[in-house]
Write a structure and sequence with these properties.
mainly alpha; Glycosyltransferase; three-stranded antiparallel beta sheet; 23 strands; 50% helix; Seven-hairpin_glycosidases
Length: 540
């Protein structure tokens, strides 16, 4: 664990010294470059890792730096997918962890705050990409002008289906449903366009919904779509998303799985198109552990671990029948996926083999990749040539998962025995009780936070019902007195007025009583008021 901590600071300090405010460090030349949009990306990506390592003072400093220095009103073409997982995800996670990090939060947190506003601003810049006939987004958007007129309509499956974790969190915290709505629409469009044998391809035209690349598998171009069906289902307690994944899982097992490896197949016929393992697929055992399929997860993990031991890292592509790398795909850019799976599986099984993988990863990365100015991408695992790049996910994911593998008492692993009670404008709220959902860039989202800011509509209805009832009684009272003086009657009018206000209340109540599986029914508004002073309605 201490070696992992030292790795983090070797990379982080050199980024600050040599590359900030650029997106990424170039470790061979000790300078920086913008890669994904000029957001000081490594700083945003590393922010929650700082807190996981226990560095609250640097977390607080970086929060201030980001508030002052990051601007999304820039004429830059940005990847919709990457901006979401790295920037929106990183800011949301840091926002939800900021109180724990000793940041002085504003009134109304976690339903308000500067990092939340930044996350919302970044996400709004991505919304124009979703304005397509299918609801599936373009892959690239200009942050100032929206989608460029000549933009290609071909997007990869993961670039369409990897929004629900961040966008649903945003909607729940801000009260604006637009983010969750577009994310769900995109997910469902992919589901609707799966093949007859239940598989999805790699790239699709978002205007016509025609599949352009018809290779089906669990790796690059598809991977985080499956991941977000599971994580979205857990985060939102959504049975529909989980049942979609379980259907896909059956088709994946039927058509792509051979001897605990997963191959690439033609999405309509199921015939093998590429007998290749991609390093990005190494997230799959971790995902299987989340649905409780530990035996299959362990067997596949051990296959992938044999490849790691063969090369001291996972090549981007590995030819399974030949047992060797694929030409021009021999590199290892310090990806986290196998370590991520080890972390999940170790939490579930405590199998020491998983710690061995962690140790091997530390040894390999230090021995092959460490240079004076940080850690460099390995261009070729056969001869250990290096490339002049350190991706921001190295600090966001690789180091974080390694550290969490070796730190069983970290607050991230909280089992619910420890928690904070926060008072929000919408009532009391439980936070930091564990059960964190990592987005696909390893930014942890506290699922309990989604229930902190949701009562506003319910309570608004309560107030409306009370007011309606109060004013209808006053109005009816005047009306009844008038009728009584005119005709000497009035009972039937009173009855109909009561039933109309009751039926309005019932409609509201039918909406209000659909509570999420995770939330307790909120105390009714009038009983809260009754604590301060009894509410009297004049029924006489």
């Amino acid at each position: 664990r201490e070696r992992v901590r030292a790795m983090f600071y070797h990379a982080y300090e050199h980024y600050l010294e040599s590359a900030f405010p650029y997106d990424e460090l170039r470790p061979l030349t000790c300078d920086g470059q913008d890669t994904w949009g000029s957001f000081s990306l490594t700083l945003i990506d590393a922010l929650d890792t700082l807190l996981i390592l226990g560095n609250v003072s640097e977390f607080q400093r970086v929060v201030n730096v980001l508030q002052e220095g990051v601007d999304f009103d820039i004429d830059v073409n940005a990847s919709v997918f990457e901006t979401n997982i790295r920037v929106v995800g990183g800011l949301l996670s840091a926002h939800l962890l900021s109180k724990k990090a000793g940041v002085e939060v504003e009134v109304g947190w976690p339903c308000a705050g500067p990092l939340l506003r930044m996350a919302e601003e970044a996400a709004r810049k991505l919304l124009p990409a979703f304005q397509t006939p299918t609801g599936m987004p373009y892959g690239t958007v200009n942050l100032l002008h929206g989608v460029n007129p000549g933009e290609t309509p071909v997007t990869c499956t993961a670039g369409i289906g990897t929004f629900i974790v961040e966008f649903a969190t945003l909607s729940h915290l801000t009260g604006d449903p637009v983010f969750e709505d577009v994310a769900r629409k995109a997910l469902k469009a992919l589901w609707k366009n799966r093949s007859d044998i239940g598989l999805v391809g790699n790239h699709i035209d978002v205007l016509t919904a025609k599949w352009v690349a018809q290779d089906a598998g669990i790796g690059a171009g598809v991977d985080s779509y499956f991941e977000y069906l599971v994580k979205g289902a857990i985060l939102l307690q959504d049975k529909e998303l989980m049942s979609m994944f379980l259907e896909y899982n059956k088709a994946i097992k039927n058509y792509t799985k051979f001897d605990d490896w997963y191959l690439w197949v033609q999405m309509y016929k199921g015939t093998v198109s590429m007998p290749v393992f991609q390093s990005l697929e190494a997230y799959w055992p971790g995902l299987q552990s989340l649905i409780g399929d530990l035996d299959n997860a362990m067997r596949t993990f051990l296959n992938y671990y044999t490849v790691w031991k063969q090369f001291g890292g996972l090549p981007e592509f590995y030819n399974i029948p030949q047992g060797y790398t694929v030409e021009k795909r021999e590199g290892y850019p310090l990806r986290p996926e196998l370590i991520e799976s080890a972390m999940y599986l170790y939490r579930a099984t405590r199998d020491p083999t998983l710690l061995e993988l962690g140790r091997d990863a530390v040894e390999s990365i230090e021995k092959i990749s460490k240079v004076d100015c940080g850690f460099a991408t390995i261009k070729d695992l056969r001869d250990h040539r290096l490339d002049n790049r350190m991706e921001s996910f190295f600090l966001a994911e690789t180091v974080k998962y390694l550290y969490l593998l070796f730190d069983p008492d970290n607050f991230i692993h909280n089992d619910g025995s420890d928690f904070d009670v926060v008072l929000t404008p919408y009532g009391e709220c439980i936070l930091n009780a564990g059960g964190y959902i990592f987005n696909t860039e390893a930014h942890p989202i506290d699922p309990a936070a989604l229930h902190c800011c949701r009562k506003r509509k319910e309570e608004q209805w309560e107030v409306e019902d009370l007011m309606r009832e109060f004013y209808s009684l006053k109005r009816n009272k005047k009306f009844i007195l008038k009728r009584a003086s005119d005709h000497g009657e009035g009972e039937s009018t009173q009855d109909s007025a009561d039933t109309s206000s009751e039926s309005a209340g019932e409609k509201r109540n039918s909406k209000k009583n659909t509570h999420s599986l995770l939330s307790c029914p909120s105390q009714s508004f009038n009983s809260k008021l009754a604590v301060l002073g009894q509410v009297f309605l004049d029924n006489s």
